[in-house]
Amino acid sequence: MPASDWPGILRRGRELYTRNLRPGERVYGEEVVREGSDEYRRWDPWRSKLAAYLVNGATRLPFEHPHRVLYLGAAHGTTLSHLSDLLPDSQLFAIEKSATTFGTLLGLSRRRPNLFPILADAQLPERYAADVGRVDFLYQDIAQRNQAEVFLENARSCLATAGTGLLMLKVRSVTQRKSTNAVVSETREALGQQGWRVVDQRALTPFSRDHVALLLARA
User: Fold this and answer.
1) Which of 17, 99, 198, 200 could join 10 via S-S bond, C-beta 3.0 to 4.6 A?
2) What is the rounded CA–CA span in Å between residue 196 and residue 78?
3) Collapsing DSSP states into helix, strand and coil, what is residue 193?
4) What's the whole-model pTM score?
């Protein structure tokens, strides 16, 4: 199995694997393989938009040695668990508003000490900003209509000046009436007006239809 240029990741064709922080444990029934003395978990792009972003041609990881990460919309923790693998020395703050789903995150955090789940609404960062502090990387995967506004508000409240973000834009959660291109263009304009530039834009098809990843940095 060939090594990847991305630390902690192995690639086999278009398949990705992350070095398992907890060898011997699976999170969602994923395939596990060994490479030398290390164990790797298959990172399914059909279940993780971040994996889909990388598989669809990203030339680099969207972060570089972040000490603290804020993840909005952690759900059951599929992508979060792979970030936990990749960033074993980082603090990953995971926001999830569903009390039912939050129980799964709590269970995951008991086995992975770099995870810090918070039951909260990502539209109200003032309720968790004091606990999170300033982060280096902001990852957003939520289904609200006002996704750009949520990103901007969390960036203002929690993101360090030199921090970057990855917005997984769910077009059909914004509107059913406009084309994907129109929604992406309007989102880029709204972010640009607040001092953000798009470093990379990448559609997530076929893994997630009408989803577009926007890698962002301050202009």
Assistant:
1) 17
2) 28
3) helix
4) 0.95
- Give the list of residues 6+ apart from residue 134 with CB closer than 8 angstroms, or none: 68, 158, 159, 160, 163
Identity at 174, one-letter amino acid code: V
Mean pLDDT of the chain: 95
Domain range enclosing 188: 44-218
Identify the three-state secondary structure at position 104: helix
Q: Could you tell me if residue 23 is inside a domain?
A: no
Indicate which CATH number applies to the domain containing 52: 3.40.50.150
C-alpha angle 73-75-76 in degrees, rounded to nearest 5 = 155
Identify the segments of the chain with pLDDT beneath 70.
1-4
Residue 8 inside a domain? The answer is: no
Domain count, the chain: 1
